[in-house]
Specification:
The complex is a heterodimer. Chain A is an all-alpha fold. Chain A is built from 24 helices and 2 strands. In chain A, 75% of the residues lie in helices and 1% in strands. In chain A, helix 4 packs antiparallel against helix 15, helix 5 runs antiparallel to helix 6 and helix 7 packs across helix 8. The longest helix of chain A is centred in the first third of the chain and has 34 residues. Chain B is mainly α. Chain B contains 6 helices and no strands. The interface between A and B is large, with 57 and 64 residues.
Chain lengths: 507, 165
């Protein structure tokens, strides 16, 4: 423990250089702005910055990306409160109570609560990241090809289920389409170019970053332009500095939401959106002021904003220890780490022993950043929200084009961005979640190699896939998740559970 | 949504079948004496089968809910009359024209200038009430497009050292 603290102190001290502080200052601010602008998500922000920072030193680039990530998830609360439009999907639950508060003339109080909630949520998430990640990394050393195969399937099934609760089928379709798209290009064992048909561009595979910039940038530009124009920003008048009693009174909600948010972050491909919704639902169930929820409840707002920001460090936990992303922005972060020569995964504590504490230090800095900016820069941020979309969106699209081109300097990537933008737009219009698709793109390679390596190890036998203890837990969870999504199974189970207590009461 | 699901189901079934067929046609390298379980077509084939299955479930579900009644005439008419759809069509055309055609053929700053100018002018034109305001908006758009083209080109080439198309 003392060792870890010393390492953390060293990592923090390492960022006390003018360069690093400058990067931290602009990246967090840019993140808040990106998050606050409807149509710009954390995923897009991190993806664009990855393409633009890939010539920087690894430490600086990853610091910038983490500040962008934390800032954007927090910044989205601004437009949620003031415009009733979530700045990023993670802030959808924030609109429920944030906007009614603003309408009552308490926009400043709402922003103060959102800032405190996001700050505390990030801190709780960081605590779990610092304590769980090293243990999980050691545990993950027991993962072989069989376990990684099931982990990939598990990620797709759980993510597809949780991001599309009303219709898990669409979540799974999105996830498996992502896996399928990841098959394009040279495979990792015999270097055979799949689905390439003689094209060298296709043989190189469809890049993750251009695909994400398309699905989250171009398709979002189209979404924003299709919607009717948003109403004008209302200016905050009351105080933004949060009242101590608002925080002290709801400390249970903060801790609960922090824990729920972090756990949702850890589950592959689930992330901030569900972190906020799950925390909000739990707070509502436990609250004595349940009737206030949806009408401007401070507790509801606190739960939503604590939950989504706690999911950020949560989503980074599997990135570092398993190389499996916990959310869509974390998927980009994972890709960025590989670009910069850091190989996350079970070996991280051996190969890069200081990296986890460095990430913890970066997250601590970012959380301090949102607290400072959130409480000081209320008004300038309001002006950003007033930029008309007709001027902002062409600029965003230009950045998407540059970003897709920047990594490999090939026009093919720009076309991939366009294709995924249109595909993402159509899929989202039909209510397919994007997170499982992203997860599929990332996990395709792991799934492919692990299944084939596993089969070689077992000499074609399927036994080890089902009998090794970790595999057993994973595939059983998958089967149960799939079964429970069928209405008939749930009903049968419900009847079974109802009958038993009744039978016991009979003499 | 039911109609969309019906069509999507059909598309997914087609993708699934095509993937399985293509995976079966992938080489198996028998002459190279490789492990038979590592053939490149194994995983894509399995994924194609899963997509086929999921697509079939979606198709059957939508068919049972009446998605086979595919008359789309009325829907198309209301769709094209909706101002949101018109803005969408215009955005798609502008973005595809810029990134798909102009970028790579024209100098980047020129393509960007033209794109931003066209975007702002075409979308703000209907918003202006008087001809005086139109001129004002046109001037703003010109200045804005120039500024974006210049700033983006300079910042990315000189500060971030990124190569531009």
């Amino acid at each position: 423990m003392a060792d870890n603290l010393a390492m953390l102190g060293q990592a923090l001290w390492g960022f006390m250089t003018p360069d690093a502080l400058l990067h931290f200052a602009w990246a967090t601010l840019l993140g808040i702005v990106v998050g606050a602008l409807p149509g710009l998500t954390a995923t897009l922000g991190v993806a664009l910055l990855t393409t633009l920072t890939f010539k920087m030193a690894a430490g600086d680039a990853i610091l910038i990306l983490i500040c962008m990530y934390v800032g954007a998830i927090y910044g989205g609360s601004r437009s949620a409160i003031l415009l009733n439009i979530p700045g990023t999907p993670a802030n959808a639950a924030t609109t429920l109570d944030g906007f009614p508060l603003a309408r009552r003339g308490e926009a400043g109080r709402a922003m103060g609560i959102a800032t405190t909630g996001s700050f505390l949520g990030t801190l709780i998430g960081i605590f779990f990241l610092a304590t769980i990640a090293p243990i999980l990394a050691e545990f993950a050393l027991r993962f072989g090809a069989f376990e990684f195969f099931w982990l990939a399937v598990f990620g797709i099934v759980i993510s597809g289920h949780l991001t599309s609760l009303e219709d898990p089928l669409k979540g799974w379709i999105a996830g498996f389409l992502g896996l399928l798209v990841a098959m394009v290009g040279q495979e990792g064992i015999h270097a055979y170019p799949r689905f390439a048909y003689g094209s060298t561009d296709l043989a190189g595979g469809l890049g993750l970053l251009p695909a994400l910039v398309g699905a989250f940038g171009f398709s979002e530009v189209l979404m924003v332009m299709q919607q009717p124009a948003a109403e004008v920003v209302r200016m905050a008048t009351d105080r933004v500095i949060p009242r101590w009693q608002d925080i002290a009174r709801y400390w249970r909600t903060v801790v609960r939401s922090g824990v729920i948010g972090t756990s949702m972050g850890i589950i592959p491909g689930v992330g901030e959106d569900i972190g906020a919704w799950a925390s909000y639902a739990a707070a509502r169930r436990a609250s004595r002021e349940r009737a206030q929820f949806g009408r401007g409840s401070v507790e509801g707002l606190m739960a939503a904003e604590t939950g989504n920001n706690a999911a950020v460090p949560g989503a980074i936990i599997p990135v570092l220890t398993l190389a499996v992303p916990g959310s869509a922005p974390a998927a980009v972060l994972l890709a960025a780490m590989f670009i910069h020569g850091v190989r996350p995964g079970p070996l991280i504590m051996l190969e890069f022993p200081t990296f986890i504490s460095e990430v913890v230090a970066m997250l601590l800095l970012a959380s301090a950043g949102i607290l400072i900016y959130g409480l000081l820069l209320t008004r300038p941020l309001l002006y950003v929200l007033a930029v008309p979309r007709e001027r902002l969106m062409p600029l965003i699209f230009v950045l998407c084009t540059i970003g897709s081109f920047a990594i490999a300097s090939r026009l093919f990537d720009v076309y991939v961005m366009l294709g995924f933008g249109l595909l993402g737009f159509v899929l989202r219009a039909m209510k397919y979640p994007m997170a499982p698709l992203v997860l599929g793109l990332v996990l395709g390679d792991i799934l492919d190699k692990s299944l084939r390596r596993g089969l070689v190890l077992s000499d074609g036998g399927l036994g080890p896939f089902f009998t090794r203890p970790i595999s057993l837990v994973l595939w059983l969870t998958i089967v149960i998740t799939v079964l429970l999504s069928f209405e008939t199974v749930r009903q049968a189970l419900g009847r079974l559970l109802m009958r038993r207590p009744a039978a016991e009461t009979e003499p | 949504m039911v109609k969309a699901d019906f069509v999507t189901g059909l598309v997914l079934i087609a993708i699934g079948i095509a993937t399985v067929v293509e995976s079966l046609r992938m080489p198996r390298f028998e002459d190279l004496n490789i492990e038979p379980y590592t053939v490149p077509g194994l995983v894509p084939g399995a994924l194609g089968a899963v997509i086929l299955l999921l697509g079939a479930i979606l198709f059957l579900r939508a068919a049972r809910a009446g998605g086979w009644r595919l008359g789309a005439g009325g829907a198309t008419r209301t769709w094209s009359a909706d101002p949101g759809s018109r803005r969408l069509a215009l955005s798609v055309a502008l973005c595809l024209g810029y990134a798909g055609l102009l970028v790579g053929r024209l100098p980047f700053w020129l393509a960007t200038f033209g794109f931003v100018l066209a975007f702002v002018v075409l979308f703000e034109w209907p918003l202006a009430g008087s001809s005086g305001e139109r001129v004002r908006r046109l001037l703003i758009a010109l200045v804005y497009a120039l500024a974006v083209a210049a700033a983006v080109t300079l910042v990315f080439q000189e500060v971030f050292l990124v190569r531009l198309p």
